[in-house]
Amino acid sequence: MNCSECGKPYPPSEAIGWRKNFCKSCLLAMEDRARAYEAKHKPYLEPEVRSKALHAEFLLNLRGLLQLCHPDKHGGSALSVKTFQWLMKVKQDLGG
What are phi and psi of 9, to 5 degrees? Predict the structure, then answer.
């Protein structure tokens, strides 16, 4: 068999599933990359940090959302009015 990552031949292993497509050195390298990615991004995976990041991102995009769903752009449709009012309430609640 040839490794799907490096293309080098390797003996069939006892691995099951997707792992059987890779040689041992490529599997180890993938695990190292996964550990490095997790270590770098772990703070952003924590609920409190993720919540703050989403809050900031939402506030940055709120003006555009309000413009996109403004009732004047949609003939005063009930959905656009309801959505616009909800976004305005969220904006006030978040202090935006």
Answer: -70, 150
Cα 41 from Cα 1, distance rounded (Å): 34
Structure-token pair, residue 12 = 């069939």
DSSP 75: T
Nearby residues of 30 by Cβ (< 8 Å), 6 or more positions away: 5, 22
Confidence of residue 73 (pLDDT cuts 50, 70, 90): very high
- Please give the Cα distance from 21 to 14 (Å, whole number): 11
Q: Name the one residue in this structure whose structure tokens are 């609640």.
A: 93
Residue whose tokens read 């006892």 = 14
Helix/strand/coil percent split, the chain, to 5:
75, 0, 25
Give CA–CA dist 49/47, Å, rounded.
6
Q: Whole-number mean pLDDT of the chain?
A: 84
d(CA 86, CA 55): 16
